[in-house]
Amino acid sequence: MISTIVVVGGGQAGAQAVDTLRREGFAGRLLLICDEPALPYQRPPLSKKYLSGELTAERLPFRHRAFYDEHRIELKLGSKAVALDPGARRVELDSGEALTYDRLLLCLGATARRLTCPGADLAGMHYLRTVADVTLIQAAIKPGSRVVIIGGGYIGLETAATCRHMGCEVTVLELADRVMNRVVAPCVSEFFAQEHRARGIHILCNTRVTRIEGAGRVERVLCADGSEVAADALIVGVGAVPATALASGAGLACDNGILVDEYCRTHDEAIFAAGDCTNHPSVRFGRRVRIESVDNAFEQAKTAALNMLDRKIAHDRVPWFWSDQFDSKLLIAGLSQDYDRQVLRGEPASRSFSVCYLKGDELIAVEAINHSKDYMAARKLIAERARLNPAKLADPNIALREAVTEPVSRNTPTGS
Amino acid sequence: MPRITFIEPGGSRRVIDAPIGLSLMEAAVQNGVQGIIALCGGACACGTCHVYVAADWFPRLDRREEMEEGMLECAWEPRDNSRLSCQIHITADLDGLEVTVPQRQGAI
Question: How many structural domains compose chain A?
């Protein structure tokens, strides 16, 4: 008999899990533990319209408080789970309160990877993960401020675009030879780097930060090549690390995330996990993956909720991602690792194009730049494991669907 | 506030007061309208806030932009009167608007 479910973490996954549990008829005691003081809220706008002030704080929460009251979801805001005892099925909060559970869901998310070079502890260093982080950044910058951003990934570039829009002088320092190098093709990196440069952002690649200096607060960044960049504010976006301390401290197996099976269950049968903090097996990709995305957090949390209620549903979706930078939208479907070939559709100069990744003839990923049609078509085709004709695929005037030779999942012989 | 009617996937009619300045999607989500998922929060990136706009209302809304058109083309059962509700901004003129939420959402 499941009478109490505790969900730890008030991000996308935690907020979705309590919603699904109630919609699916769980009538017992349901608690949501959130370490931040605010109602569970959306993170994607933080680096974009929330930072710029175009989106106000009351538009960030997923739900009003009335939703939680109406569904008898006990919210514990500003409350951190500090210890977990799987044997006693008990989780302890920083207030000293201990909660016992029949099922526990860990939606612990990820935290911003910290910079470790000398000077990384100076005042004026910022990370961007929470509303509180954004409040600090907003207080630190004004039109004309010299903002230096370390890291040219999604967060770094989105933040660069927003700060520029707000009138700051912006420099992006990237360690690799191109921006977003882990997630997109070189021509896509080049397109976005140009978009930024055209608006006056300095992007310096192959640049390793060795030291931050200043009298009590950040004043300049020193790089390995001897160059120096003056900074009024420094924002670091060098990736995220899964928040696993609570789980590993309780003896749950972790390896780049909390290890869960396809049913979102950890090695403890009463404990499930979902979202950025998990590492899950993917049949589709033939390996374990840890995915940082809104969509994965949402879908995995929904699946975890159903499995906590003893439905048997596997989580194995085609992941998707997006990024808004100035007036361009990057839409990504699938994961582009282990591909055999890249096919460009359309011309980057047209500002609307896509890059398709094939493994053999199977479409496994698409990066669509200002091209929602290819992106949405790709999400379907990747899920169907469709095979595509590369020559047709290279012609942007032929719709993606029309480049299909046969869907793998439906290729059983028909007739004789 | 303008009153807007959503016909949910199960067939029930939900009438909500929609604050001017929000998107139709935000008003739906805040009021817990069934079937509006809106994963991307209004970035026109997920295709999960799809609605069918009542025939007499459709021509009174702003036209769909290219990004929205592309999202809808491969959405679940698109129709001529399909819209992404995140792209509809609530104004006083929308008082009485009626939309139907499809049975499914996303690239299915």
Answer: 3
Identity (one letter) of the amino acid at A317? R
Helix or strand or coil: residue A104? strand
How far apart, in whole angstroms, are the C-alpha atoms of residue A262 and residue A256?
16
Q: CA of A70: which chain B residue's CA is closest?
A: B32
Provide the whole-model pTM: 0.94
Q: Output the pLDDT for position A3.
A: 97
Angle CA A105–A155–A190, to nearest 5? 135
Q: Are residues A181 and A129 in the same domain?
A: yes
Say what the pLDDT of residue B106 is.
85
Structural domain contains residue B45: yes
Q: How far apart are CA A306 and CA A26, in angstroms?
A: 10
Q: How far is B19 from chain A (nearest CA, A)?
A: 12
* For B108, nearest residue in chain A (alpha carbons): A380
- Domain assignment of residue A215, given as a range: 125-236
The Cα A158–Cα A166 span in angstroms is 12
Q: Tokens for B51?
A: 């609605």
DSSP states along B1-53: --EEEEE-TTS-EEEEE--TTSBHHHHHHHTT-TT---TTSSSS-S--SEEEE
Alpha-carbon distance of A33 to A18, in angstroms, equals 11
Dist. CA B84–CA B49, nearest whole Å? 5
Under the banding of pLDDT at 50, 70 and 90, the label for residue B74 is confident
For B74, which of A63, A329, A373 is closest by C-beta distance?
Answer: A373
A193-220 burial code (b ≥16 CB/10 A, e <16): bebbeeeebebebebebeebebeeebbb
Instruction: Report the Cα–Cα distance between both ends of chain B, in Å, rounded.
Output: 35
Judge contact between A84 and A105, C-beta under 8 A. no
Tell me how far apart the alpha carbons of residues B100 and B7 are, in angstroms, rounded to a whole number: 5
Reported as a single tens digit per residue, the pLDDT across A376-386 is 999 999 999 99
Measured distance CA(A365)–CA(A388) in Å, rounded: 12
How far apart, in whole angstroms, are the C-alpha atoms of residue A106 and residue A266?
10
Tell me if ipTM is over 0.90: yes
Edge-to-edge order in the sheet of strand A271-273: A73-76, A29-33, A4-8, A103-106, A271-273
Give Cα A288 distance to the centre of its chain.
Answer: 17
Is residue B108 situated within a structural domain?
A: no
CB–CB of A126/A138 below 8 Å? no
Identify all chain B residues contacting A379, using CB atoms and an 8 Å cutoff. 74, 106-107
Q: How far apart are the first and last CA of chain A?
A: 54
Smallest CA–CA distance from A13 into chain B, residue: B39
CATH number at residue B89: 3.10.20.30
| Tally of CB atoms within 10 A around A394 | 14
Residue at B76 is within a domain = yes
Q: Is A71 in the B-facing interface, judged by CB distances under 8 Å?
A: no
Q: What is the DSSP string of A227-238?
A: -EEE-SEEEE--
